[in-house]
Each structure stands twice: as C-alpha cells, then as structure tokens.
C-alpha cells in the first residue's frame, strides 16, 4: 500500500499561487515544505520561477536546469522538501492532468535529486484556477499519495459562517461574521459576488482549492478571536449589578381598560398586594446584602403606580441616601408607566426632582380614548389625562413618551397608526410615541401592523432623501450598533428576565419580570422572608435549534414569556433578521450628515 502524505497549507500558499496564475501562459513555482509528525508536510514558502522559465518554438515551458540543480542543493542543505508546481492554463473543469512534458520534468528532477544525495520526498503538482493534483515519490522513486489540507480543519464550520447583506436600495453592503460578532462594509457588487461564492460553498460544489480560497477570504477579513463567554446570571452577580428592578407598587388599577392583558392590574391575583415604603426599603436592603451595589434602573409599575406617590418619592429619596453613604455606587435611573389619571403635586415634584422618565398611556383623540381607557364607572379619561400632561409639562416633569394601543375602534374611526402617532405628537408636543397592536381580545385590529416593513420603508426614505435621522430610527440603529460593539460576551440569552431584571411584589415575592406574575410556578423566591437572591437564566438561545444556528442570534431580544407561552415563532424570527439586516445596511450607508447625527447625538447620549 502506497504511503500517504498530507500537505498542510496553513499559510494558504496554494491560494496565493492561484492568484498569480496567467490564463495565457504556463507558469512554474517552487514550494518548500517541512516534515511534521503524522506523515504531514507543512508548506512554508513559495518562489515564482518567472525568471527561470521560457517558451520554446512550440510555446512549451522550458526550465533553466542550472537553477533546478541549485535549488535542489539548497533544499538538501536545509533539509526541506521540494514541491514543484506547473500551471496548466485554459484547462476545463475536471480535465486537469499531468502531461508528457510534466512527466519529463519530474523524471529529470528525480535523477538530479538522486545524484546530489537528496533523500526526502519529491512532490510534483499541476494546477489551474480551480484545482490541483499531485504526484509524489520517495528517494527510491516509489510513488507516494499526496493530498492537501488547510491546517484549519479543526475549526468548526461556524468559523466560516457569514451573512451577506445587500439591497438595491443601498450602494454598500455588509458582511457579518457571527463568530466574531463583527461586520465589514463592502460595495454592493462585491457583496453580490461573495454571496455567489457562499452559495456554491454551502452547496459543496467548489473544488478543494476554491474552498480554501473562500475560507481564506473569511479568515483574512475576520481574524480569529478568542472565545467569547456566554452571558449568565453569574456575570451580573460577580459584577454586583442588577440592570432593572421592577417594583410592583400594587396589583390593582383605577381604570378598566377594555383590552387590559393584566386583568385590571391584578394579574389574576385574588388579592391586591400593595407595596409600602418600608417594604420597598427592605427589598433594596436585601439586594445590598446579596452583593448588588449597582441598580441601573428602578421601574415603578403595577397595576397603577401613580396611586402611591409616597412610595415613589420614598424609594427615590432612599436611593439618594444610599448613594451618599457609598452603599449604592450610583443613582439608578427611575422610570414609570402611568395612566396619568391621578397625578398629585407630590408625584409631579418627585418626577421633576429625580428626572423620572414617565411614559403615559393614552389611546388617541377623546372619541376613541374614552371608549377604551375608562374608569370603573365606564366614564372616559381623555380630559383628565390631557390636563395632567399639561401640568407635568408646566413643572418641567414632561413625559418622555406616550404609548397607545391600536384597536378595532381606531379602524372603525378610520384612523391609521400613522395618523394616531401624528395626532399624539402634535397634540401633546411629545415626539416619541410607541404604538402596539391590541392582541388577544375582541378589539384586536383586522389589519395587523407590519412594524418591520414600516421601519424599512422609513429607513429607505430617510437615506434616499438624505434627511436627518429621526429619534426613533436613531435609537433602533443604536440598538444594533451596541450589539455589534459587544466583544465581551455572547448574547446567548433572550430578554433580561430573571438574570438582569427581576419584578418584586409588595410582599417580597419576586419573578423574572411582570409578565410572569400571573403564574405562581414562575415565582423565584421572596427577598424579605428568605433574604435570598437567585438570579437565573430562563431562556437560552443555544437550547433552540432555530436560534443556535441563526446568524442574527446576537441581536435577538425576544420576550422570554412569549417563548414560554407560544414557542419560537417563525414570523417573529424573520422580523428580527429583516430588522437587523436593514439596520446594518443603514449604518453602513449613512451620509456624512446622518453619520454626524448618529455618532454625536444618538451614540453620544
């Protein structure tokens, strides 16, 4: 049985040689190799023999014999293996083979090698732009089987996994490398060409050399990075950090909104659980005892939180006291979602003093809002909400955002989502308006919103007209850019629930977030009675086949509760990928004016 030698081309010598081939004439190269363990030869350097070959009258390549002889002596002295490569231009796919002239070259070279005492294997090859074949001989002229290996076969295919993103709306495309979480900007035609080769590579129709060239392109563009560890609750415990503390001030509400998913704020709990300031302090003290010294955001929620202004004020005051004592490293950001029906002076003062970021829920003009957001007696709320927003604005405590729920009532009143957004922006002078479709009730609109399609349309329109980025688009682009900039940890988890965020009730019970509190099975523990803090990861993308291999894994923050209740939905996955792809294209194609806004205003804030 013939000996088998494996040529290891970690330096992509053969790919470099292919780039030097001439379609109009034959070429020759000498390659040096070094013997390694396991019948392997590591290719080290190559030499273009352009100066030492010429064509004869039949246009066949003739090699300078003296050069060959000198090369053999040098290889013998340095104990290196000689590989002679001869190109065959214009050979069709599958027709590459050794010619009679090639046979003459290697027979002559074998004789010269024997005469000077060269006793290492001699290897000959013929090559074209797509393929290479070998003939090898030992010192006695006995044939040796040779095959090429890259030296990177131990890499997972993930190492070569890229997503090629381009669109006719944009001049530049993006190549995204999942393993590195890194993107490169290329022109659109280059992106198309890479996509073409990627398709061939994934269909396994490329020759060995073409596969090597494709992988070389990727490894050159995206050098190997050290393994990035997974996100976990332990990361945040070690860093003494909790991103989001949701305080459920009560499980009750002063309204009876027609579509409420929280069952009038009760979340199916039979009794209202009200949080006192003493309880809130005990919760924060418990977190401190468990090593949490940074709480980035405290979210006042419910039920309706505005009914307990003394608790909101007390929590803000207490955090300021803890910061002054060095027990909290920095002041949290405070946020609140409210129906704004009851906004007393104490609460408005606290909003102004502590910069509480308030979102007010209102569903549109009076004739629509008052059919949806109603009191317990069925009366409307528009007028009081309008008046309270004005009071907040007068006291430098203006809401940062309005949120509305789009329903069948809006459709019956012939108000589109854009018209609803424009109305609220103009009526209240608040630019950021979030609109969510009513879901899971008889008021669900007939025509579902395609928010991703609308986002893509807005991006394309903004880019084509070279307009300043809206705050909404800027924030969405920033979200993608922030994930791209994350080189520390893999974003292997979905939303923050359970490991960067907890939701605490007025009795100390805590859950991954407010969406989970309908089901007691998801209760993690009790911060007051048990004094324990068990941060945990509830949903890991690596546990789902669809997610594990998805190129947009780093950018997906799907709701853990939705995954538990509905599973991985293809439509949502497709939306994440579209959203991410268009965001990357937008960032790559920003004009100078737009780029200045994005980096100075959006990122700088």
Automatic annotation (TrEMBL):
Coiled coil: none annotated. It comes from the Bacteria. Keywords: 4Fe-4S, Iron, Iron-sulfur, Metal-binding, S-adenosyl-L-methionine. Gene3D superfamilies: Aldolase class I. Residues 237-476 form the Radical SAM core domain. Pfam families: Radical_SAM. The keyword Metal-binding applies. SUPFAM superfamilies: Radical SAM enzymes. One of its GO terms (molecular function) is metal ion binding. Its cofactor is [4Fe-4S] cluster. InterPro entries: 4Fe4S-binding_SPASM_dom (IPR023885), Aldolase_TIM (IPR013785), MoaA_NifB_PqqE_Fe-S-bd_CS (IPR000385), rSAM (IPR007197), rSAM_sf (IPR058240), Sulphatase_maturase_rSAM (IPR023867). The keyword Cell cycle does not apply. This is Radical SAM core domain-containing protein.
């Amino acid at each position: 049985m013939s000996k088998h030698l494996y040529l290891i081309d970690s330096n992509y010598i053969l790919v470099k040689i292919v780039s030097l081939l001439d379609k109009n004439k034959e070429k020759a190269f000498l390659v040096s190799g070094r013997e390694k363990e396991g019948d392997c030869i590591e290719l080290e350097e190559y030499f273009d023999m352009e100066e030492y070959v010429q064509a004869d009258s039949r246009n066949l390549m003739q090699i300078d014999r003296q050069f060959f002889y000198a090369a053999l002596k040098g290889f013998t002295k340095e104990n290196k293996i000689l590989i002679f490569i001869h190109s065959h231009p214009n050979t069709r796919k599958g027709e590459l083979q050794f010619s009679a002239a090639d046979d003459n070259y290697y027979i002559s070279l074998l004789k010269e090698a024997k005469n000077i005492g060269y006793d290492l294997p001699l290897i000959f090859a013929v090559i074209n732009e797509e393929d290479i074949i070998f003939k090898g001989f030992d010192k006695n002229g006995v044939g040796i089987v040779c095959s090429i290996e890259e030296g990177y076969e131990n890499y997972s295919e993930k190492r070569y996994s890229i997503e090629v993103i381009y669109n006719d709306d944009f001049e530049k495309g993006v190549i995204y490398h999942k393993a590195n979480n890194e993107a490169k900007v290329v022109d659109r035609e280059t992106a198309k060409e890479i996509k073409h080769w990627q398709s061939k590579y994934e269909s396994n129709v490329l020759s060995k050399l073409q596969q090597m060239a494709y992988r070389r392109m990727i490894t050159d563009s995206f050098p190997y990075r050290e393994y990035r560890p997974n996100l976990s609750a332990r990361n945040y415990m070690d860093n003494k950090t909790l991103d989001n503390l949701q305080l459920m001030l009560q499980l009750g509400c002063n309204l009876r909104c027609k579509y409420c998913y929280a069952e009038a704020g009760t979340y199916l709990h039979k009794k209202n659980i009200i949080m006192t300031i003493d309880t809130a302090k005990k919760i924060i003290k418990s977190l401190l005892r468990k090593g949490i010294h940074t709480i980035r955001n405290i979210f006042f929620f419910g039920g309706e939180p505005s009914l307990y202004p003394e608790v909101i004020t007390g929590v803000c005051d207490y955090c300021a006291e803890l910061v002054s004592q060095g027990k909290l490293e920095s002041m949290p950001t405070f946020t609140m979602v409210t129906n704004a029906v009851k906004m007393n002076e104490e609460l408005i003062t606290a909003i102004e003093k502590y910069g509480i970021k308030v979102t007010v829920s209102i569903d549109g003009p009076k004739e629509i809002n008052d059919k949806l957001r109603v009191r317990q007696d069925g009366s409307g709320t528009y007028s009081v909400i309008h008046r309270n927003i004005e009071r907040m604005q007068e006291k430098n405590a203006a809401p940062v955002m309005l949120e509305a729920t789009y329903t069948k009532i809006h459709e019956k009143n012939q108000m589109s989502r854009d018209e609803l957004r424009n109305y609220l922006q103009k009526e209240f002078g608040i630019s950021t308006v979030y609109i969510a479709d009513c879901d899971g009730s008889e008021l669900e609109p007939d025509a579902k919103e395609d928010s991703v399609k609308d986002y893509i349309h807005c991006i394309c329109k903004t880019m084509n007209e070279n307009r300043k980025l809206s705050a909404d688009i800027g924030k969405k682009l920033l979200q993608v850019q922030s994930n791209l900039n994350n080189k520390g940890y893999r974003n292997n988890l979905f939303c923050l629930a359970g490991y960067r965020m907890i939701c605490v009730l007025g009795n100390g019970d805590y859950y991954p977030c407010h969406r989970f509190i309908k089901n007691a099975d998801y209760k993690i523990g009790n911060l007051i009675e048990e004094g324990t803090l068990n941060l945990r990861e509830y949903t890991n993308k690596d546990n789902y086949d669809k997610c594990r291999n998805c190129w947009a894994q780093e950018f997906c923050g799907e709701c853990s509760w939705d995954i538990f209740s509905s599973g991985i939905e293809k439509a949502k996955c497709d939306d994440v990928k579209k959203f991410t792809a268009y965001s990357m294209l937008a960032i790559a194609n920003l004009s100078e004016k737009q780029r200045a806004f994005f980096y100075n205003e959006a990122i700088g804030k």
